Amino acid sequence: MTSELLRFSTAGSVDDGKSTLIGRLLYDSKSIFEDQYEAVKTASERRGEEGVNLALLTDGLKAEREQGITIDVAYRYFATPRRKFIIADTPGHIQYTRNMVTGASTANVALILVDARNGVIEQTRRHSIISSLLQIPHLVICINKMDLVDYKQEVYETIKEDFERFASKLDVHDISFIPISALKGDNVVERSANMPWYEGSTLLYYLENVHIGSDHNFIDTRFPVQYVVRPYNDDYHDYRGYAGRVAGGVMKKGDRVMLLPSGFTSTIAKIDTADGEIEEAFPPMSVTLLLNDDLDLSRGDMIVRENNHPEVTQDLDLMVCWFNDKPLQQRGKYAIQHTTQNVRCLVKDIQYKMDVNTLHRNLEDKSVGMNDIARITIRTTKPLFVDAYRKNRITGSVILIDEGTNETVGAGMVIG
Amino acid sequence: MNYQLSHLKELEAESIFILREVAAQFENPVLLFSGGKDSILVSYLAKKAFYPARIPFPLLHIDTGHNFAETIEYRDNWVADLNAKLLVGSVQDAIDKGKVTEEKGYNASRNFLQTAVLLEELENGKFDAAIGGARRDEEKARAKERFFSHRDEFGQWDPKNQRPELWNLFNGRKQFGEHFRIFPISNWTELDVWQYLAEENVPLPSLYFAHQRKVFHRDGILLADSEFIPKRPEEKVVEMTVRCRTIGDVTCTGVWESSASSIEEIIEEVAASRKTERGGRTDDKRSETAMEDRKKDGYF
Ligand SMILES: Nc1nc2c(ncn2[C@@H]2O[C@H](COP(=O)(O)OP(=O)(O)OP(=O)(O)O)[C@@H](O)[C@H]2O)c(=O)[nH]1
Ligand SMILES: [Mg+2]
Predict the structure, then answer these.
(1) Domain A4-215 has CATH 1.20.5.170
(2) Within 13 Å of residue B20, how many CA atoms lie on the same side as its CB?
(3) Are residues B161 and B271 in the same domain?
(4) Of the ranges A316-325, A397-406, B75-84, B111-120, which one carries the lowest mean pLDDT score?
């Protein structure tokens, strides 16, 4: 049984109705189990709410229920005969932007909610910028709470125009707009009788049909070595397999390959899996490669094609999202993870901080604190094998780690 | 050429990636094995991840002593099949040594004692990563968990302050004494698990298939008649055709009336079911945040 997997995440400001929308989507597509529904109904009654609060389907933590907000990403799953979906319902509160980024980093589609009464606000812009930096291929702007503005078309049109003006400055290619009421269900799964003026599709129809021509790069062969498999038994005495996940390209038995950083070349002797040998491997498969020559190769190294390799460099130009209370330090040292490499780096320069309202490059105020987005250059202790993030999300991304606390403090995307 | 993986193959590839990442990043991982389908799946995927080498970490079963007899038999055969190493942490031992105190009354369960025994085993074995079979679709607190979930030196989870986890980059750094819980099958649903186990012909414990069993009703749940569960006078034992949807300690694992006797029938039943598998777990029903509370303390 083959079905496509679509990953989507929610975004938008606090209380714009993200969790309610996910609850509604699950409920109206009959993806909620009776006992889950009963539990949410009981919890709503206990809280003295009028109806059944569908946001409680994803707001599962005690602290979230106490405050009526989402704090961390909730992952939910549902399937229709057409597709299988992984939903990341993320928080709108600015304090938890890092969790929004967590949920959005693997999404094919981002649903950006806007409260029809408030229109596009700073947090809407911040999340849209983050979605565009993360190169999420499709954005759906859900103009929510239409029930509170009498389902008026003008409200919808004004917000749509406002967003389009802002988005023209962003690097996004596919934007759609849907007027909805997450609370009442208009245009979520069922077409709304209250908005006959809207001729587009419902949200579910969109999600089932949007073309997700794969997110992966099938051109540029990249295989970060993750783990070396050595069986140490008589049957497989000389077996030395390089286990990893294909990050780009299509690899075939017999292909001539080059190893980084050594620059040595060899050919692929075998592509092995526990289910037997296979002829070709492509993203996102996890396989084990065997080479025809005995070469020194270990975790952090990369197998590529001779005539097509990533940039081998110690100097990286990055857009970063900062996650920590402690600001990014100019000349600061951090641990950095890139594919299967762990190295250290020095922040050489903070070039500018981005103003999320105007998309302006602020060259004066370069203090990069929590939730800020900035362009920086770093130098690493060892060469990394990188591609531009827009070319490959796997070989183009890094995380920065505070060496004192071990916390992940920033996410970086390679510019190029 | 169409380079598209089925969703099950994509989930498999993701889980194998995580398991290899654990072996690479941690010094001394351990795989928590309960004998249920999820830990069977994780150990099966671990075998695939390191093939043709052995799984480079042991399996650990926290044994409450209140098992279905079939569970232990299956466990020992399965571990032999995998050619893996098995460690057992015994709740009975911990009770005998006075380290934990047994609950009393009709709803008494050793399920809660498992946490203390688990944490002690992790400490004694100096394990720095404990791999579990929890899935996000199981329960609302689990829906919030990362693949790499950090635990402080008391084994506690801080759900309000989890590390960001982006792309395929997993930060397993920790201070001395801290450890990680790792959940390689986070993104699998119950239906995915069954479909995959069917596709791969994985042998499963007989408890999952319909069989005759002496059972009784309690609080809307069917429980197996067992020497480990004291019955109230009004609770009448009847014989029914049932199966388990999850397998855990006898005292808190509900059974379901079912005639599904093959994996295909189970898949049909799960696909049509209107209740979650944990709907039959008495341990989750103790309060609205029962799972979160247990997880914060270091439960699986
Ligand atoms: N009238 C009306 N109220 C709505 C609608 N959608 C959401 N709400 C209400 O708005 C409030 C906030 O909804 P949530 O779904 O929790 O908002 P959120 O975007 O998930 O908030 P955070 O996750 O904390 O950022 C709740 O009281 C909802 O009932 C809608 O379409 N119409
Ligand atoms: Mg929310």
Answers:
(1) no
(2) 29
(3) no
(4) B111-120
**Yes or no, beta carbons of B51 and A232 under 8 Å apart:** no
Q: Which residues of B148-166 are buried (b: 16+ CB within 10 A; e: fewer)?
A: bbbbeeebebebeebbbbb
Q: Which atom of ligand 1 is nearest to the CA of A181?
A: 31
DSSP result, B248-291: --GGGBEEEE----SHHHHHHHHHH-SS-GGGGBGGGGSSTTHH
Tell me how far apart the alpha carbons of residues A274 and B200 are, in angstroms, rounded to a whole number. 12
How far apart are the C-alpha atoms of B139 and B265, rounded to whole Å? 24
Bridging pattern class, strands A286-291 and A265-272? antiparallel
What letter does residue A377 receive in the DSSP assignment? Answer: E
Cα A39 to Cα A76: distance, rounded to the nearest angstrom: 16
Cα gap B260→B204, rounded to integer Å = 14
Name the region of A18 (left: φ>0; alpha: ψ -120 to 50; beta: rest). alpha
B144 vs A61: CB contact, 8 Å cut-off? yes
Range of the domain at B246: 205-282
State whether the beta carbon of A14 lies less than 6 angstroms from ligand 1: yes
Q: Looking at the partner chain, which of B13, B24, B162 has a beta carbon nearest the beta carbon of A245?
A: B13
Determine the number of helices (DSSP H) and then strands (DSSP E) in chain A. 7, 22
* Å from CA of A7 to ligand 1 middle: 22
Tens-digit pLDDT profile for residues B171-209: 999 998 889 999 999 999 988 999 999 999 999 988 888
Angstrom distance (rounded) from CA A301 to CA A257? 13
Q: Is B259 left (phi over 0), alpha (psi -120 to 50) or beta?
A: alpha
> Cis ω on the peptide bond leading into residue B52 (within 30° of 0)?
yes
Q: How confident is the model at residue A166 (pLDDT cuts 50, 70, 90)?
A: very high
Name the residue among B221, B165, B185, B170 with its Cα closest to residue B300.
B185
Residues B120, B59 share a domain = yes
How crowded is residue A199: how many other Cβ atoms within 10 Å of its Cβ? 6
**How many domains is chain B partitioned into structurally?**
2
> Ligand 1, from A118, A183, A190: best to mutate by most atoms within 8 Å of Cβ?
A183
Q: How far apart are CA A351 and CA A371, in angstroms?
A: 17
Residue range A81-94, pLDDT digits in tens? 888 999 999 999 98
Same structural domain for residues B122 and B234? no
pLDDT bin (cut points 50, 70, 90) of residue B283 is low
- The superfamily in CATH containing domain A311-414 is Translation factors (2.40.30.10)
| Token pair belonging to A325 | 């209370």
- Residue A92 CA, closest ligand 1 atom number: 25
Model confidence band, residue A1 (pLDDT cutoffs 50, 70, 90): very low
Q: How many Å apart are CA B278 and CA B27, to the nearest integer?
A: 33
CATH class of A222-304: mainly beta
Residue B271 within any structural domain of the chain: yes
A346, A354, A344: which is closest to A328 by C-alpha? A346
pLDDT digits (tens, 9 = 90+) for A27-41: 888 878 777 788 888
Within 8 A by CB and 6+ apart from B272, the residues are none
Look-up: residue for tokens 């037997």? A276
- The domain locations on chain A are 4-215, 222-304, 311-414
